[in-house]
Amino acid sequence: MADGKVMDLGEGRHLFVSVSEGGGMPVLFLNSLAADLGMWDGVRGRMSRRSVAFDAHGHGRSGVTPGDCTVDDLAEDALAVMDATGLDRAVLCGLSLGGATAMAMAAKAPDRVAGLVLANTAISFPPPGMWQDRAATARSGGFASLVEPTLERWLTEGYRAANPGTTDQVRAMIAGTSAEGYAACCAALAVADLGPALGGYGGPVLLVAGAHDASTPVARAEEMQALCDRADLVVLDAAHISSIEAEADFADRLEAFVTSLEKGQGHG
Fold first, then answer.
1. How many structural domains comprise the chain?
2. What distance in Å separates the CA atoms of residue 117 and residue 91, rounded to the nearest whole number?
3. 3-class secondary-structure state, position 114
4. Contacts of 17 (CB under 8 A, 6+ apart)
5. Is the pLDDT of residue 268 over 70?
């Protein structure tokens, strides 16, 4: 797992934050439900530019606050991390729940957003009852029963068979998630509606989908593309967590996107 430290960001927020130094346009990474910032280690390790990642509310080594949260709450957390790490403006790279958080950030503070990379995500995550059931299972002591089904959605069977070590690490990452933190963020996904946020963002967007992603299939990315003025869509050979299963391709696509923004805006 990447090095970092717990930052006290006020209002009861204690978030574990990792900063990788480098030049050029920085990238803020936003993680999936049931993941920690380690899901980005491979991608970040392939980049020489400055990046910041953090464990979302109730995940990884970040603090747990009882009760439900919203995508707007998660966006406020992310903006506080940007303030604390000196990121005036950055490319936001979010996967699944992290993608929803990025879209909410773009609506709240568009001047802080140089571009959006929205991976394996969607503008909504129906049906709400599914998330409510998962939250109830987690809070009633049944979180362990959610680990294997989550792993099977995240990584294809072929990848799991060929990469047992990484698969074990991902399984441990899921299992290590706080049940209360997981449930809180399930509540955010149950009611998320990011269509207005994405449709109102006029900046550049890179959409990343997984060819084998049953959770947020390619059609959901196409739905997002239709809302954007400036969006490119790439489909990687992966299931839901493309930043791990297609690490090299993901990093290459991300770097090309950020480099194109630098050229257009005089960075680098």
1. 1
2. 7
3. strand
4. 4, 5, 6, 7, 52, 53, 54, 81, 84, 85
5. no
39/103 Cα distance (integer angstroms): 20
**Residue 2: which pLDDT band, with cuts at 50, 70 and 90?**
low
Tokens representing 194 are 């990011």
Q: By 3-state DSSP, what share of the chain in percent is helix, strand and coil, each rounded to 5?
A: 50, 20, 30
pTM over 0.85: yes
Report the Cα 227 to chain-centroid distance in Å.
Answer: 20
Q: How confident is the model at residue 266 (pLDDT cuts 50, 70, 90)?
A: very low
Residue 168: φ, ψ to 5°: -65, -40
- For 155-192, b where at least 16 C-beta lie within 10 A, e where not — what string? bbeebbeeeeebbeebbebbeebbbbbbbbbbbbbbeb
Task: Look up residue 150 and give its amino acid.
Answer: T
For residue 145, give every residue at least 6 positions away whose Cβ sits within 8 Å of its Cβ, in sequence order, or none: 137
**Range of 163's domain?**
5-265
Q: How far apart are CA 51 and CA 91, in angstroms?
A: 9
Tokens at 163, concatenated = 């990469």
Q: What torsion, rounded to 10 degrees, do the Cα atoms 74, 78, 79, 80 define? A: 100
Secondary structure element (H or E) that encloses residue 17, with its range: strand 14-20
Q: What is the CATH number of the domain that holds 135?
A: 3.40.50.1820
